[in-house]
Design goal:
alpha+beta, 4-stranded antiparallel beta sheet, 3-stranded antiparallel beta sheet, 8 helices, 51% helix, 18% strand, flat
Length: 281
Amino acid sequence: MAMGDAKPSVQIPMPSRDRDLLVPPAAVATHASPSARAGADSDDDETKPSSASAAAAAAQTGREAFHKVVHSWASKKFMTGCVILFPIAVTFYVTWWFFCFVDGFFSPIYAHLGINIFGLGFVTSISFIFVVGVFMSSWLGASILGLGEWFIKRMPFVRHIYNASKQISAAISPDQNKHAFKEVVIIRHPRIGEYAFGFITSEVLLQGYSSEEQMCCVYVPTNHLYIGDIFLVNSSDVIRPNLSVREGIEIVVSGGMSMPQFLSILETEPNQLTRIRSTRS
């Protein structure tokens, strides 16, 4: 066969699926249509903002959690400071008010005389109160006080104010055998298993047809000290703790905050407990 006689080339058709496998991805991307390339670019652009928004949301969540922790810590410390400083401030304020109130009785007299000494009016007032207490404890002072009360009790409006204030002052009088609150007691009130603090004001003998019953008139405060209820309780049902009248008044006025951890009963019946335990408020 001569060199000039070349054989014609024969082309074998190849399936399009096999041709796609032989074409590299870069070439596919190069020969892709402009609309396809634009769609791919738009997908990349959408992926980038979504990841950025997720990072921003995570940062915002972290800042909010940090702010909450700081706010909770600051609030607790602030309330702790208030709890510590409040009783101190109230104590100083009441003490200063009492000092100025007592000092104001005699300080104007000293100021009028040209004597300006700080606290001299307070010392004079305390001394005057002490002298009045000594004088009124004598027979002559008691006679003068009785005469003054006789005039006051005949005044229509003043006598009610005087009687009420005298009963309150008599409750804390050192002579507890003759005045309002004789001793602190605990009674079962208002239901079984619940107890209430009260003060014995008097005793009465309840007479029946066939028997007599010794009753105690117990005053149970319901609004600090000056408002309360009166109960007639059998003397055998009255629990007497080892508390003085002043300690009982402190417990009532403080809302139970000055309650001791343990209360011992002085007089008990066989069916009563020998000890009442109460937690500090």
